[in-house]
Specification:
about 220 residues, alpha+beta, Aminopeptidase, two-stranded antiparallel sheet, 9 strands, globular, disordered N terminus
Length: about 220
């Protein structure tokens, strides 16, 4: 779905303002690198992970409890998004979008959760935040650098933090088999937009992130 012409936004030159305008309306961008174009989408059905029924397999629970990684937030946002957009694994993000998302991060409307081993970033995820809605964009891990399961661990910590801060919507854009293990479901666009309107108007903030234990969710 193309982003409507608003009179001063250029869909091919995304800014933080354009991203906020579009996410509030259930629209998100993806780049088509083959033709150097940014398209805008509002899928029906929509993928979401209900925060109240998030699932973690026992094997992953053991990894999280083991504490293999130091979990941080917003310490390397641009590194995270560029790792997610690595050409070997992605063809939907370009430099124009990276600049716009980094601008969102600078104003506190996009956040990363990161897994570190010493001074090495070995996994992470990033997304947009408006009120009580978190729009998950992508995640990555670097197994060869000791980051096996790092992105999954970051997702667990993200959900714990969203619950702790009283978020109500975790948007995944689409359902996938990978996300299904965590409880991802599909809902209609109409249902999604209703939940979205309620979430973005909540007085919720990201806060000062710190990893939470199992007892905190």
């Amino acid at each position: 779905m193309k982003a409507p012409d608003t009179g001063h936004f250029d869909p091919q030159r995304p800014t933080a303002d354009l991203l906020l305008w579009s996410y509030r309306r259930g629209i998100f961008p993806m780049a088509d690198l083959s033709v150097d174009r940014i398209d805008w989408y509002s899928p029906d059905p929509r993928g979401v992970i209900p925060l109240g029924s998030f699932r973690v397999r026992k094997s992953l629970q053991r990894i999280v409890k083991r504490g293999d990684f130091e979990i941080r937030s917003d310490c390397a946002f641009e590194q995270v998004i560029r790792a997610c957009g690595d050409p070997r694994g992605s063809d939907w993000i370009n430099d124009r979008l990276i600049r716009a998302y980094c601008e969102l991060n600078e104003i506190g409307c996009a956040h990363s959760v990161e897994a570190w081993r010493g001074d090495k970033l070995v996994g992470g995820l990033y997304g947009v935040q408006i009120g009580g809605a978190y729009f998950g964009e992508s995640m990555f891990s670097r197994p060869r650098a000791g980051g096996t399961n790092a992105s999954k661990v970051c997702l667990v910590h993200l959900v714990r933090w969203l619950r702790h801060r009283k978020f109500t919507l975790l948007d995944t854009q689409y359902w996938s088999r990978h996300l299904n293990q965590f409880g991802c479901i599909e809902i209609s666009r109409e249902e999604y937009l209703s939940a979205l309107q309620k979430a973005v108007n909540q007085p919720v903030t990201w806060g000062h992130f710190h990893p939470l234990g199992c007892e905190d969710v």
